[in-house]
From TrEMBL:
The modification 4-aspartylphosphate is found at residue 55. GO terms for biological process: phosphorelay signal transduction system. It comes from the Bacteria. Residues 3-120 form the Response regulatory domain. Keywords: Cytoplasm, DNA-binding, Phosphoprotein, Transcription, Transcription regulation, Two-component regulatory system. One of its GO terms (cellular component) is cytoplasm. This is AraC family transcriptional regulator.
Amino acid sequence: MWKVVIVDDDEKVLRGMKKIIPWQELDCEWIGEARDGEEGFALIKQLNPDIVISDIYMPVKNGIEMIKQLRENHYDGKIVILSGYSEFEHARQAVRLRIDDYLTKPASIDTIRSVFSAIVEQLEEDQMNSVQVAELREKVKLYEPLIEKEWLKSLITGTVDHNHIPPAVKSMISKWDDQDHVILTIVYDQQLEQSKLYQSDWYLFRFAAGNIIRETTERYEESYQYVELHSHQAVICLHFDKDKQEEIKNKLYQLAGALEASLKIYLSVDVTVNVGGIKSDWFEIAQSLREASSKNNHHSLGDSDELLLQTTEGKRTIWSESMEANQKLSEAIRYADETSARQIIDEYFSKVDQQSYQSALAMQIGIELWTIMTYSLYDIGIRIDDMFDESLDIYQEINTIQSWDALSNLIKEKIVTICHHQQWDENLKHRQLVEQMIDFVQNRLNENITLQDLADELYISRNYLGQIFKKIVGESFKNYLTRIRMEKAKKMIQEGNYLIYEVSEKVGYVNPAYFTTTFKKYTGYTPTELIHRKLTNT
């Protein structure tokens, strides 16, 4: 409830205001009174009310002086002047002190209700704005790491828009203009799937591998980023002072060997670490990746002063070496974007088709594509095995292919199956999942329910769960939850058995003011106005 303090030296006015103000209807409560400006200042400073009603002419310190002192001490609450008609000009002069409204003595109940309603509405709007700003700040904090990660991946793979740099990454790149840069690629052996940790828990494997790579890298260079490109490849982007290029060459030798040895010792997996060319401009980081992804460049230095780790463009045919296409395909699969995924495959194979068909190369490309799609789905909680018949043998299907066109068509067939399977329309399992979500909401409506709570309860990723719910129900989980809460609140208010703050708690809102604001946004009127309508109609 909104807290109110009244400052007036007239005992009759104090008693009258206490009696005639419809406190419950306005969702307000009287928390204190004072009889002069000095006493009022001390009380307001102690209790910090939302609303102050003050007379002007009082002993010891008048209302204007008290208000001036409050504003100087950063009191931001609402202030209503209570004055006689003869003092009106004096009251008008107080505008510079941010007086929110005034009441002339004597004030009718309708006038008091009108002024208070306007003040409460301002408070609710201010609080909503404050909550929205706070939520926005939290979202920014939450998404900053994700924005940084995705922007960095785009920079490394060559898909970034250099004309648009998100504010979240500006602190990261602030030193880059004075540094040189180089990419190291970490490519897992094709036998990776045989690792026991990999087989038992893919997420745990990623966590363990990431920690080993970071700890190893930090022994050689502090300024770096570690980025996973897909299931079989990750990169390290190193930054170092421009006058340390000779020194860094030796470190790159050592770091590459140390990474291979550490992953072999601790995780029993074989990796190949390749090094790209050193770049003086961070805009060219993607070029360093392309050089590191070229074949026959296993952490070796050329004869010149810079790293010469590139081969001819014609040899770069393996899918994993096409980082831009890799990232685009992964995103298309995660969003079930069939059109984009098919287009990416067509564009890639239009280049591959320029060379003669090789069965071994086709097998490698096909398996890499299948792996990318598998783990793109796995990251959002979907098992690709659940989308295909148990008899599917992707290796055998690729092995029977005799041309690049046939391989392209096979991959696109799998993409169609994946994307259409994600439409969920006839998927009983998803409908049962949504029914569980609705039951959860109905049983715990008085709790602070979030989609993450449901995801934890049902052992499924939050994003995937949100997609399922919206597809089946036709609205987002957030909108559904608000609608159910507001409809129940409306019913409870109309029944008249609960106070507004009790209704707020019973539908999951700890803060009654935020509940009131949400209620008005949903229904078009406040809970108090709904009560008044009910009383008027009876």
